[in-house]
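Researcher: Go.
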Amino acid sequence: MTGLLTVADWLQWQESLNVRPIDMGLERVRAVLGRLGLQPPAGRVIIVGGTNGKGSTITLLHDVLRAAGGDPGLYTSPHLVHYNERIRIGDRPVADAALIRSFERVESARRGVPLTYFEFGTLAALACLAEAGCDTWLLEVGLGGRLDAVNALDADVAVITTIGLDHQEWLGDSIESIAAEKAGILRSGALALYGDSPVPAAIRARAVELGAELRVQGVDFGYARDATGSWTWSWPGSAGVRRIDGLCAPAHWTPAQLRNATVALAVLSRLTPPLAMTAAFLNPVLRRSSPPGRFHVVRREHEWILDVAHNPQAAAVLREQLGTLPPPPGGPGDVTIVLALLADKAIAGFVSELRNVASRWIVAGVVDPRASTEAQMREGLAAAGVTAIAWESTPAAAFERARRLTPAGGRILVCGSFRIVAPALEWLGLY
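Model: Structure:
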């Protein structure tokens, strides 16, 4: 690659390097990573995996560290609108110039290795964090854990948020097989946290095999609500269990968000040097911390709710969050769902979780090689007992139809994929 290239030029070229869009394995990444010679911050590489809750957990880690005066770097995927959103430095998406420098650095070290698009981007992200001198690297697993490109680095702290059925074609068809893949981010003697219960046997077994220090939600750290409605969160500190009373939670939080926040605080309590965490310090961060595209509420003529939930476990959480809101003026059934799911998702399982909160369904086609066809979506919805649906070939047409069909003040829920939420953000003029 030579000449004056844009980020878009680089990304298009990266897609051509490997004939397989997903090619699981660490050999290619480790070979190039070794030649890059990057120096991660000692003791401050935090890798977050799991089926759901990764984005919320890692975003809260980032936001607390920033509020405490630190300089964390954040790598997540996928992005919503702009690729640069995957890498946050100085609380902003990485600049084009810095990203292109990292692309050039990876290409110089690649020496013909057929990296995938995600592998190339992950290495570039690490190069960006190193160049910026970030004091903590916060890295979100893209797919699975054991063979994900992020796992080419050794985690000083490994977090697994939840385990649910998703990406079965890559990770297996059972909770235990998926847990075994997620547990691949654990390291010998290092701290590992699991943010849900019960703990899959595969995670416990891997921790024992490695001698990792496994800490578990509900046993080693947790949360409770007092009579006033405020929260007490506790976690293992460097000298026994610490607790803070009077912590706040946004009104739309359910147990899922509380668990995510609790595991994030448990991680922060174990970092060196320690943070002076108090309710006065944490509450403003807890109120504002939210990754883009997660239960994003926009109130205009209609109440729009945008959420990237894309598997049954996430759909169940979304349904619980909807229950925290007042019903729309037309009643609890006055809800339009605009849906797009990729073909590898459990369409029927996802729809079943939301079937009783919707009065009308609009399904949209999206631009993605893995997108579901109209026939696949109709079949999946029918299997969940939903046959009355409208189909639109583009997200914009689906949003316009939802606007026309939904009475003023009614609720429009856009969900199922980053590929439908991103166009919604743009259509609503938020990007």
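Model: The first strand starts at residue 45 and ends at 49.
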